[in-house]
Write a structure and sequence with these properties.
The chain is an alpha/beta fold. The protein contains eight helices and 27 strands. The structure holds flavin-adenine dinucleotide. The site of flavin-adenine dinucleotide (FAD) has 35 residues, from helix 1, strand 2, helix 7 and strand 23.
Length: 392
């Protein structure tokens, strides 16, 4: 494909903005449009469950760029208008407000939306956390709450529980796993996380999934807690549902693109001729792993955007990252490189778990697949290079 005269990016957040910036850095001088359904200028999501929820940061501090930097990008930002459908043959996006935006190349960067529980929409006092508005709404209620129930024992649920405890709220964390993040990190690290949450006063009600939310007998429409699949009821005056996320591909359903847990792409992150996907919404063929992969992490949003920008300009390179994410909970800062699995063989290669400063190597059939750093970011990076290769 020759250099496109007009590029349209659907989704004006981490991956969308990084695509636009990478195009300009690589010398692209054509027309550039970013379409986003949120009214906000692009902002960063990791601080939402940490600094913004805690009140340590004003919301503006999560903005990814200043107005001046965005202006210098010489891109048209169409905010507060959602992409409603895509005409692949004519490379045209139709928006909720009735715009028809044609381009020579289109980048799909619409991310994911939170999974919810049945009946959740009709109740007050129940939150999800994906957007800046979600974070501010949750914070406002947290400041007045006595007891928070976090439904979901994954990364987001555990981070919200930790931040809420820091605000002095009673917190119960519920989920089906034996310990927070057990499926992702395995018994050693998730066991340490459980200890950390216990010590800091988070009540863990794990090992049983949540069946549904409860409301009072008068049916006021306000949540009163949740019912576990065991029948047990956990009471709370505020509930956060953090049960993972669903790729925002509804608007692409009639497009003819292959959809399946994201926008399915080839190894170049290409979904169709002139149409690419980047960030949480993209499920692409990872040539080194030999399988389709979709990552929901901040580093991938930027790195995949760089790969898409390069391929848009003719690089024809496969995107083969070593996955990476981090999480901050209480005083623990974890770095996770590679693809960890709960059943991996785990060996501590530096530091000491008892001192809560260590690096662990994860292997399958003797071959390293991941590295986890616990309060040892630099050392974790060195071990990543040694055990997993790559340049970082
Ligand atoms: C609270 C929270 C904490 C996180 N913490 C960490 C962390 O500690 N470490 C880490 O590695 N990752 C973390 N992440 C994940 C990280 O933020 C995401 O991987 C990253 O934001 C993905 O960027 P994206 O641009 O692909 O998607 P998103 O950031 O989701 O952006 C997609 C954008 O597209 C918009 N959109 C959706 N549909 C449409 C449509 N039809 N038309 C137009 N626009 C649309 C969305 O509203 C959104 O603005 C966290 C995420 C959250 C929510």
């Amino acid at each position: 494909m020759s250099t496109p005269a007009r590029v349209l990016v659907a989704g004006a957040s981490a991956a969308g903005l990084a695509t636009a910036e990478a195009l300009r850095r690589k010398g692209y001088t054509g027309a550039l449009t970013l379409l986003g359904d949120e009214e906000h200028v692009p902002y960063d999501r990791p601080p939402l469950s940490k600094q913004v929820l805690a009140g340590a940061w004003q919301p503006e501090r999560s903005h990814l760029r200043t107005r001046e930097v965005l202006d210098a990008l010489d891109a048209e930002f169409l905010l507060g208008d959602a992409a409603a459908s895509l005409d692949v043959a004519n490379r045209t996006v139709h928006t909720e407000s009735g715009r028809a935006l044609a381009a020579d190349a289109i980048v799909l960067a619409t991310g994911v939306r939170p999974r919810t529980l049945p009946g959740q929409e009709g109740l007050t006092g129940v939150h999800v956390l994906r957007s800046l508005d979600d974070a501010l709404a949750l914070r406002a209620e947290l400041l007045a709450a006595r007891r928070l129930l976090v439904v979901g024992d994954g990364v987001l649920g555990a981070e919200i529980a930790a931040t809420a405890r820091g605000l002095g709220v009673e917190v119960v964390l519920a989920g089906p796993q034996a310990a927070p993040l057990a499926a992702q990190l395995g018994p050693l690290a998730s066991g340490l996380l459980a200890e950390l949450h216990n010590e800091n006063g988070v009540k863990l009600r794990l090992g049983a999934g949540v069946d549904g939310l409860t409301t009072d007998a008068a049916n006021s429409g306000r949540v009163t807690g949740a019912r576990l699949c065991t029948g047990e009821v956990l009471e709370a005056d505020l509930v956060v549902v953090a049960l993972g996320a669903i790729p925002c591909t509804d608007w692409l359903e009639d497009s003819g693109l292959v959809l399946g847990n994201g926008v399915v792409c080839d190894s170049r992150c290409r979904a169709a001729d002139g149409i690419y996907a980047a960030g949480d919404v993209a499920r692409w063929h990872h040539e080194h792993l030999g399988s389709l992969l979709r990552l929901e992490n901040r580093t991938n949003a930027t790195e995949q955007a760089l790969a898409v920008a390069a391929n848009l300009l003719g690089a024809d390179q496969p995107y083969t990252p070593i996955p990476y994410f981090w999480t901050d909970q209480f005083d623990a800062k974890l770095q996770i490189h590679g693809v960890l699995t709960a059943d991996a063989e785990v060996s501590v290669v530096e530091g000491d778990p008892a001192a809560r400063r260590f690096v662990a190597r994860y292997a399958r059939h003797g071959k390293a697949v991941g590295v986890l750093g616990w309060n040892m970011p630099k050392q974790a990076r060195l071990h990543r290079r040694q055990h997993l290769g790559g340049s970082r």
